[in-house]
Write a structure and sequence with these properties.
Helix content: under 10%
CATH architecture: Beta Barrel
CATH superfamily: Nucleic acid-binding proteins
Number of helices: 0
Structural class: mainly beta
Strand content: over 45%
Radius of gyration: 15 Å
Number of domains: 1
CATH class: Mainly Beta
Order of helices and strands: EEEEE
Shape: globular
Low-confidence stretches: none
Largest sheet: 5 strands, mixed, barrel
Amino acid sequence: MEETIKRNDRRHKVGVVVSTKMDKTVVVLVERNVPHKLYKKVVTLSTKFLVHDENNECGIGDTVEIAETRHYSKNKYFRLVKIIKKAE
């Protein structure tokens, strides 16, 4: 039996755009807080994702929502869902 992944079941993340130098691609920084395994102090971990932005509508500093999707290239497997807040 094959199980298909529905569009709404894919992972969604919220992050900040840190680079827009590529065509139809932005770099989004996603931060998450996790407790340290031994000391239990909350540590902030950050990850950068390459995100497909079809219309080049994002700017640096924008807060965006991204969703996992098929691979657009070797490292680009997220797409832009919406811009939550434009940079000032």
